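hiii so my PI (J.) wants the whole complex modelled not just the main chain, which honestly fair. so below is everything: four entries, each one labled with what it is. i double checked the lines twice but i was tired so who knows lol
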Amino acid sequence: MTGTISKQALRRLPYYLEYLKKQRDEKQVVNISATIVANDLHLNEVQVRKDLAAVSVTGGKPKTGYVITELITDLECFLGYNNTKEAIIAGVGKLGSALLSYDEFARYGLHIVAAFDTNEEIVDNVKIFPAKKMADLCERLHAHIGIICVPPSQAQAVCDEMIKSGILAIWNFAPTHLRVPPEVILQNENLAASLAVLSQNLAIEIGEGSNDRKG
Amino acid sequence: MTGTISKQALRRLPYYLEYLKKQRDEKQVVNISATIVANDLHLNEVQVRKDLAAVSVTGGKPKTGYVITELITDLECFLGYNNTKEAIIAGVGKLGSALLSYDEFARYGLHIVAAFDTNEEIVDNVKIFPAKKMADLCERLHAHIGIICVPPSQAQAVCDEMIKSGILAIWNFAPTHLRVPPEVILQNENLAASLAVLSQNLAIEIGEGSNDRKG
DNA sequence: GTAAAATCGTTATTAAAATATCGATTGCCT
DNA sequence: AGGCAATCGATATTTTAATAACGATTTTAC
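here's the output for the full assembly
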């Protein structure tokens, strides 16, 4: 690694990857430059160049740019799409069961190997286990990622249980703050937060008496 | 509005709200200070104070802090949870149908009033319409928010159709870059991107030959 | 073979967000 | 009533990410 890549940059990588594959498959592009990518994705050229430099092994050549197949490989490798990562999921409600049966995860190297919930037995042909079996299953299935889809009120308890079971990274879909020890990685996925950004901007734009009482 | 609130700050607001409600309901807290909130949520005290100052109407009082009920009201008001926002959704696959039947949205003031897809007719007791009826329905149902859950290859076409139909803000769950005119608000929700951050940090932590070919 | 154009990668500058510092205000305790 | 402790709100500093500027390299054209 040239250094550490910023979180924001990391979030841009999947977009590059998707775009590059499209260029390769639909338009048979062989070489591509950061300039072109930046123009097409409406990003700053230097930003793209830095991002790509951070993941590319061979680097790009002046005048030519990058070999698109190499760049795709490097991105997939950097993003870990090749080696599978085992995960467990807790909470098989609407959102949880959607994630459980979300085929796209396989393309990102994520494999959900066990699901947990309180009362349910079978959901979408998948057996649901009680929380007390979590530690045993995590160890046997080598799962290090935990996905939390339970209601906010139960999220912390489930989180604690996961950590006790050997989970090292938590992907939290519950709209609540979780307390984790420093060595555990926490990634929050809060639909309410995203919606807040969206509707706030919308309110500003259409200026419909805005949400702001201070006005 | 005291000014414009930053996007990151906006994303923190739902966490404050959830936390405050919990304190009010479970522990009958009446007054609360930014200091306490910051400690409990493990955030910087000044950051919390600024965030709360941006939404609070009356402000907090020294030594006492904020009246928790007022603060909750102000947050809900600021986030627009009171006034409902009509939305349409395109793409009723795994993820799309989960969002379509995700009851929690109602609490955020979001109401999905119509769903669109190519072939399906009925999903979860909801009628699915073909795209050609989008413009008409958007107008009649006063929908200004569009949720995109179609595969990446179709996302841009659907996006364009939504904009033609009068949609002003787009919530994009397709892992692809979308081109929108400047007046249209775009919020990307990319699970691949979040997963990238998570697994990258995990790879660094457990140092398992990392994903990085550069070593 | 040389000049020109395009691109890379690095270094500098700017912008934005997070964090620290400080004085002012309010309630509580003696 | 007076002083102490806690909190607010504002201003400054630091840190981080985004953007701009620049020199170096490589291909293509003449």
